[in-house]
Amino acid sequence: MYLTNTNTICAIATPPGIGAISMIRISGNETLETLKKITKREEFSIRKAHYCEIFSNSGELLDDAVVIYYKSPHSYTGEDVAEIFIHGSSYIQKTLLETLMDLDLRLAEPGEFTYRAFINGKMDLLQAEAVNDLVFSTNSKHHNIALNQLRGGFSKKLSQYRDELIRLTALLELEIDFSEEDVEFVSRDELKNIIINLIDEAQRLIDSYRNGNVVKRGIPVTIIGKPNVGKSTLLNAILNDDKAIVSEIPGTTRDAIEDQFTYLGHTFRFIDTAGLQKTVDKIENIGIERSYDKMREAYIILYIIDISKFDYFQFLGEIDELKTQIQNFDNKKMIIVFNKIDLIERIPPHIFDLKDYEKVFISAKRKENIEVLLDKIVNSIKDDFDLETDTLINIRHYKAFNDIKDSLSLALKDIEKNMPNDIIALDLRQSIDSIGRITGEIVTDDILDHIFSNFCIGK
Ligand SMILES: Nc1nc2c(ncn2[C@@H]2O[C@H](COP(=O)(O)OP(=O)(O)OP(=O)(O)O)[C@@H](O)[C@H]2O)c(=O)[nH]1
Ligand SMILES: [Mg+2]
C-alpha cells in the first residue's frame, strides 16, 4: 500500500474526539519546512518544547501549541518528525489537518509511522508488532510480554538462536569444502545434541502460545445453564452494561454474545450462551450447538442455576449430559452459580451435598455478590497465567516456530540417516529463514501490509 511512498505524512496520534490535548504527528523530509509555515517561526531546536502560535492556511490564528521537532535519524520513524500538541477541539484538529494537507502532506495510513521505523532500521518486525500489542494491552501480563518484545528482549534471544544455527551451518559447509580430507569440524553427536536443544526451546515457545494468546484475547469464561436462569442478566451485571437482551421468555438468547472485562489485572472474555434445552426450534438448536462450542473453548465454565427451581437429581443428570457433549469437561474449571437468591427464604436441601464443586450464591438482577463470584474466578486460575516474558502472543511467530521445529526435526532425521552435509545444511538454512521471517529480514509486502494495517492511525 504505502511501500514506495516517501511523502511527508501526518495524523492525529491521540484518540479521536474531543479532549484536553490532542497531538498531531508529522514525519518526513518536509517536516521542518511545514513547521515553519504553520508557526511563522524560523528556528526550531532539536528535541526541545517550543511554545508557538499555530496558523491555518488562510492565516487565521488557530491555537497556542507546544511543538517538538526531532531530527533524522534520532526520531521514532528515523525521519524528521514533529509532534504538535494542540487543544483537543474537533475544530482545531480538523483545521490543522486540512492546513497540513494543503501543504502537500498526506494523511498517514494505520501503522505507517511504525512501518517507517521498521523500514529505516529503528526496530525489527517483531518489535514493530510489539508496539501494536503494547497499545492494545489491557492487563499487566500482556503488557509485560509486549514491552519485553518492544525493548528487544525477545529479538536478542532470537538472534542468539539464529547465531547458533548459523554457526552449525557454517561448520557443516566448511566440512564440505574440506571433503577430500575427511575432517569433522563438529561431531555428529554434538550436532544432534545442539539441534535437540534447539527443538526443545522451539517446542517450549510453541507451547507458550496457548496461554499467551489467552492472556492477549482474554481468558474465556463461558456462562451456561438452562433457559431463563439469568445468564444474560449475569453477563450484563458483570459488564455493567445492557449488552445482552434479558426477558422472562425462555430461549431469549439465540447466539453467543461476548465481551472483555478486566478484573484484578486479569482480562477475561465473558461469553453468554443460548440456554440448554431439548427443542424442535431449528434456530434455537443452532444456538445450543454454539453453546457447546463455547463450552469447549472455555477455560472456566460458570454453570448457572435458578436456585428457586433447584433439583438435585436433575442437576446430576445435566452434568452427565455435558460430559458426553464436551470431551475434556473434567479438565475445565467450573463454578456453580446459584442465581435468584432474592426469591428464596432458605437454601434448598442437597445443595451442600455438591461438595466437589465451587459454589457461589448471587442475585444477578440485584447485582448482589457479583464481586464474590469474580474473586472466585480469579482464585480459580491461581498462577496459571504467570507467563515468562518470552511467551509467544502472535500467531505469525507461532507458525514460524512450528516451521523452525519441522526443519530442525528434518535435520535430525537426516543426520541419523547419515545424509551428506549439504542436505543437513539445507535443513538448517530453512530454519534460519523462518527466524528471518519473524524479525522481518525476509518478508513479503503483503505480510507487511497485513501487519501494519491492524495498527491505529498515528502509530
Ligand atoms: N428475581 C430474579 N430474577 C432474575 C435474576 N436474574 C435474572 N432474573 C430474571 O430471569 C429472567 C430471565 O433472565 P435472562 O438473563 O434473560 O435469562 P437467560 O438465562 O439469559 O435466558 P435465555 O437467554 O432464555 O437462556 C428475566 O426476567 C430476568 O429479569 C435474579 O437474580 N433474581
Ligand atoms: Mg439469555
Structural commentary:
The chain contains 14 helices and 12 strands. It is an alpha/beta fold and 459 residues long. It has helices spanning 31-39, 90-102, 112-119, 125-136, 140-150, 153-177, 188-217, 231-239, 282-297, 312-325, 370-381, 395-416, 421-439, 445-453; strands at 9-12, 19-27, 49-55, 61-70, 81-88, 106-107, 219-225, 257-263, 266-272, 300-306, 333-339, 358-361. The longest helix has 30 residues, at 188-217. The strands form 2 sheets. The chain has a 6-stranded mixed β-sheet, covered by helices on one side. The radius of gyration is 29 Å and the shape is flat. Guanosine-5'-triphosphate is lined by residues 225, 227-233, 246-248, 250-253, 274-275, 339-340, 342-343, 363-365.
Write the layout of secondary structure elements.
Elements lengths: L8 E4 L6 E9 L3 H9 L9 E7 L5 E10 L10 E8 L1 H13 L3 E2 L4 H8 L5 H12 L3 H11 L2 H25 L10 H30 L1 E7 L5 H9 L17 E7 L2 E7 L9 H16 L2 E7 L5 H14 L7 E7 L18 E4 L8 H12 L13 H22 L4 H19 L5 H9 L6
Parallel strand pairs: 1-6, 7-9, 7-10, 10-11, 11-12
Antiparallel strand pairs: 1-2, 2-5, 3-4, 4-5, 8-9
Bound molecules: guanosine-5'-triphosphate and magnesium ion.
Magnesium ion binds next to helix 8.
